[in-house]
């Protein structure tokens, strides 16, 4: 059964969650004129949200991003991910994005909380081990903050790299595209992408860097980017990794809305909604390119198959617990 759960705080921020994919269906915040509107690019109706396949607001995993050739070797055994994508996008056909989670809703003096749980069996995903997943959302009452925490345990060594795939558009009900949004990322290095897979770590050149905040559209249409990924679709490595550091800032100067992100993860994949869909979105139009930016905080995608990465952070050992957090702060500037 499908459920939608609404949370609201004193700032008139409304977060609507869904148990399908332990997902964020919508987030509404006020602009500089105190007008409350959606800051996500999401479907106009909830039924389409369940059936769409662009991972709108969904929990992505077991492995967010792509796994090259949909195969990996762990502890000497090769595994093949069932998938319609040649590179096992977001966990493949047995992924976490469109299954129904159980959930419990509660409240304290400090926050509203929803905890989603799901048991991903090795049979349904073909990853080793039965994986018990906990996705916890907290909307704070006195601070305009939404946090999402991912915990997981496994019966065997396996791969885990979970994130949220919300499509942000701060203009309000996606009335404009995101080319005029300003983006800052505390990152001097990124992963070079070739045929949609990371190949090596490189310094961020001018057309890729967001170390100094600038319009997303300033370089997006550069031939090098367009011919490669049709827009931004790159992992950025934070210069400093800490849950207490604001490593990402997204701004829409027209509305005054500001989104700040802190995370325990070491990278963020920036994806600018580079392709179209058939769904009618919350601006009453069909899905269009560059009407949103996804900021997918995670471990390096495809770490298990990347010879340029020594630390295989996406491996969850049998006796360990996966425990990572993303924090979203909602602000308004009246410049």
Query: How many helices does DSSP assign?
Result: 3
The Cα radius of gyration reads 19 Å
CATH architecture: Distorted Sandwich
Q: So what's the CATH class?
A: Mainly Beta
Helix content: under 10%
**Total domains, how many?**
1
Q: What's the order of the H and E elements?
A: EEEEHEEEEEHEEEEEEEEEHEEEEEEE
Unreliable parts: none
Strand order of the largest sheet: 8-9-10-11-25-21-20-15-18
Might you state the CATH topology name?
Beta-galactosidase, Chain A, domain 5
The description of the largest β-sheet is: 9 strands, antiparallel
> What structural category characterises the helix and strand content?
mainly beta
- Binned strand content: 35-45%
The CA-CA distance between the termini, in Å, is 45 Å
Q: In total, how many beta strands?
A: 25
- Global geometry: globular
Mean pLDDT: 97
How would you describe the overall organization of this protein?
Helices cover 5% and strands 41% of the residues. With 335 residues, it is mainly beta. The chain has one domain (4-332): Beta-galactosidase, Chain A, domain 5. A hairpin with a 5-residue loop joins strand 3 (23-30) and strand 4 (36-38). The radius of gyration is 19 Å and the shape is globular.
Structural features:
single chain, 335 residues, Beta-galactosidase, Chain A, domain 5, 9-stranded antiparallel sheet, 6-stranded antiparallel sheet, 3 helices, 5% helix, globular
């Amino acid at each position: 059964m499908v459920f939608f759960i609404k949370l609201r705080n004193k700032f008139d921020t409304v977060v609507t969650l869904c148990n399908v994919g332990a997902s964020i269906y919508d987030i509404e915040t006020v602009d500089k004129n105190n007008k409350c509107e959606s800051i996500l690019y999401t479907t106009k109706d909830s039924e389409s949200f369940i059936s769409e396949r662009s991972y709108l607001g969904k929990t992505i995993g077991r492995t967010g991003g792509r796994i090259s050739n949909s195969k990996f070797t762990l502890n000497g055994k090769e595994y093949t991910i069932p998938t319609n994508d040649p590179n096992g996008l977001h966990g493949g056909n047995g992924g976490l994005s469109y299954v129904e989670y159980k959930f419990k809703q509660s409240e304290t003096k400090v926050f509203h909380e929803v905890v989603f749980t799901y048991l991903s069996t090795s049979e349904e995903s073909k990853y080793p081990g039965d994986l018990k997943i906990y996705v916890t959302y907290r909307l704070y009452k006195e601070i305009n903050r939404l946090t999402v925490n991912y915990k997981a345990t496994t019966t065997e060594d396996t791969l885990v790299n979970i994130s949220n795939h919300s499509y942000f558009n701060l203009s309000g009900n996606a009335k404009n595209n995101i080319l005029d949004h300003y983006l800052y990322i505390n990152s001097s290095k990124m992963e070079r992408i070739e045929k949609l897979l990371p190949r090596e770590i490189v310094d961020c050149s001018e057309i890729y860097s967001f170390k100094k905040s600038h319009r997303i559209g300033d370089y997006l249409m550069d031939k090098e980017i367009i011919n490669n990924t049709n827009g931004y679709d790159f992992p950025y490595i934070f210069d400093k990794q800490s849950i207490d550091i604001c490593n990402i800032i997204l701004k829409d100067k027209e509305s005054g809305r500001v989104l700040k992100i802190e995370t325990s993860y070491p990278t963020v994949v920036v994806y600018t909604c580079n392709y179209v869909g058939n769904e009618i979105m919350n601006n009453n139009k069909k899905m269009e390119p560059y009407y949103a930016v996804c900021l997918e905080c995670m471990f390096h995608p495809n770490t298990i198959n990347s010879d340029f990465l020594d630390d295989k952070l996406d491996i969850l050992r049998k006796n360990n617990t996966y425990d990572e957090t993303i924090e979203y702060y909602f602000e308004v500037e009246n410049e």
